[in-house]
Structure formats: C-alpha cells, structure tokens
Automatic annotation (TrEMBL):
Alphabetically ordered keywords of this record: Hydrolase, Signal
Name this polypeptide is given: Alpha/beta hydrolase
Native source species: Streptomyces aquilus
Domain AB hydrolase-1: 49-268
Signal sequence extent: 1-35
C-alpha cells in the first residue's frame, strides 16, 4: 500500500510540474506577443501619402501606385490638380492638406512637383516631399524655365494650344499633347493600347500655369526624395539631376519615360515608402 501511495503521489507531482511548465510557456508566449504588440514602431500610424499628378494626366495615372501603397496599409489621397495656375493650384492643394490629420508624405509628378513645392511651405504635417520626374523650382522659377534650362525636351513641338478664358475672363491657352505624338512624347515605354486611352483622357494645362513663378519652395526646409526618369522627353534628365542636387535630395534613377508612375509603379512606390520610413 505504501509503495502504491508513493507511486501515486509521484505521478501527481510530475503531472502538476508538467502542467505548470506548459502554463509558464503559454504565459511567456502571451507576454512576448503583448510586448511585440506594444512595440512603438508597430504602433506608430503610417503617414498619409498624398499624390499630385502633373500636366496631360489625371489621378488615374497613380492607380498602380495606389494599389501597392494600400496593400502596404498606407492611407492614400490622389488629388485632382486643377492645372490652371501655379498660385491657384497650390492654394487648392494647401486646402486639401489642411483637411488631413497627422503626418503626410507629399508626392508630385511633373508639374505637380511645382505645386507641392509651393503648397507644403509652412505646413508642419508634411514630413517628406517626393518628386517623380518632376520640377523642383526655386523662388521665381517656372516649369517652362526649368524645362528649357538643359537640352533634350521635345514637348513644345507636340503641343496643341486651344484658346479659352480664365474664370476672371482673361484669355489663356489650354495646352494638349497631340494624340498622334502622345505615345512617343509622354509614355514611350507604356503599351500603346494604354497610351491611346491616356491621350484621349489627358487633362490640359494652361500656358499660364507652366509660366507661373514659384514662391519660396518647401524643399528648402522639408526633406526631399527625387526619382529621375532617364528617358524623359518632357523634363530633360539633366534638369532633373540639377534640381535634385540643388535641393540636396535623396536621389535615385530609373530607365523610364516621363510617365514614370504608369510605366514603373513599383519603383515609384519604393521611393515613396523609403521616404515614409525615413521620417516616421
């Protein structure tokens, strides 16, 4: 009997010990998971990415970039750039930015770079500026000035002006890229079936917007990232590199036409997310 009792007690003790060990393991796992959940890096909200298109495009030019950013859980706003005047377009974007809570990564393509440079000045929520085959004007410079600063742009020969009126009644020209020239000029590395649609749906920019002089630009006080499109026929790559160097921007290059957000959305997303990671 005594031997049986001792054996029974031994088994009971071993069972209790095993149960305690399992419980301790589960507790450690749960504690570790909770600690991971409380990691400040994982708790910090991701910045809102605001995308600003340029001339001869619209917000759908960002579609493949938006899909990638949303897959990576970034809030995204694609702004409909009016393309009427640099001061007016910048004021409109400034109002859009004022309605967004929390940190912002602001990205612009082409003329959109001029707009973000002006709209972000003085906005403490804008933590990074991203320029994608875009203009980075200094005070007093226009997009037209910078496009002509270095040889290589063939845009002027492809434009079709359409006389119209500003809201105040003053005359202005809407500028379109001729449909027959659109593929080669704007997006030579994009399938023609796509560029045929882009040509038809392009939004014109006024000559006044391209000639508009920049105010004090935000890239002087906000960190900037630049993606140079090395096959760009709108903004010469040499001009893009000049502006990036002047702004002390984090610069990378991609073999792409001017329509870099359409032809290389993966690289564009990478640059935007690199900027977002750097300022979080």
């Amino acid at each position: 009997m005594n031997r049986t009792v001792r054996t029974s007690r031994t088994r009971t003790a071993l069972t209790a010990l095993a149960t305690a060990s399992v419980f301790a393991g589960l507790l450690a796992t749960a504690t570790g998971s909770a600690a991971a959940d409380k990691d400040p890096a994982t708790e910090a909200p991701k910045p809102t990415v605001v995308l600003v298109h340029g001339a001869f495009a619209d917000s759908t030019s960002w579609n493949d970039v938006i899909r990638r950013l949303r897959h990576d859980h970034y809030p995204v706003v694609a702004v409909a750039n009016p393309l009427r005047s640099l001061s007016g377009d910048s004021a409109y974007l400034r109002d859009v930015l004022a309605g967004i809570d929390g940190p912002i990564v602001l990205a612009g393509h082409s003329y959109g770079g001029s707009v973000i440079s002006n709209a972000a000045t003085g906005n403490e929520n804008v933590k990074a500026l991203v320029y994608l085959a875009a203009f980075l004007p200094d005070k007093g410079e226009s997009a037209a000035d910078l496009a002509g600063k270095f040889p290589g742009s063939t845009l002027g020969d492809t434009l079709r002006p359409v006389p119209t009126m500003n809201a105040d009644g003053s005359p202005v020209n809407d500028l379109y890229i001729q449909n027959t020239s659109f593929h080669h000029q704007f997006a030579a590395d994009v399938p023609r079936a796509t560029t045929d649609l882009m040509a038809v749906t392009q939004r014109p920019i006024t000559d006044a917007a391209l000639a508009g002089a920049s105010a004090e630009p935000a890239w002087k006080t906000i960190p900037s990232w630049v993606l140079v499109a090395t096959q760009d026929l709108n903004i010469p790559p040499a001009a893009q590199e000049f502006m990036a160097e002047r702004a002390h921007a984090h610069t990378s290059k991609v073999r792409s036409s001017h329509a870099v957000s359409v032809s290389k959305p993966g690289k564009v997303t990478e640059v935007i997310e690199n900027a977002a990671h750097a300022v979080r």
